[in-house]
Request: fold
Amino acid sequence: MQEKKIELSFITAHLSELSEQEQQLVANAKSSLKTAYAPYSGFLVGASVLLENGEIINGSNQENVAYPSGLCAERVALFYAGARYPDVKVKKIAVSVHSKNFEVTEVVSPCGACRQVMAEYEEKQEEAIKVILHSPTDEVLIANTVEDLLPFMFKSPLLKKH
Reply:
């Protein structure tokens, strides 16, 4: 038996330390909180995706009384970007959160399903996607690749016979 270690890399910063472009992407994600439909959890999530062509696509979480039928903000934004601009690479995604029921003071990480979707886009385009996670206190956590959020990600070559 052999123990192995994984090294992950991320940056913590204050929103004011980001580039103007990244601050704008976070502002879009925060603005997207207004369109979230979260009457059951009261937990609002906004996401904004910056595409290689300069377009910014926004999304927000959309709940449903049948919980599995809802969709997270990250997937709403990524799926819309993929449908609208199927051949354009995703450069960055910013995610912001707010709760109607309690104070959020920490950065909140995307759920496993959203991480896997981000990983799929990263694999498909063969280029890293920068992930910017924003807290209501304007602290941010930045991963320069989805792989730093999802080690051991499931990849399509695993589906192919050798």
User: Anything to note?
Assistant: The chain has a mean pLDDT of 94. The chain has one domain: 11-151.
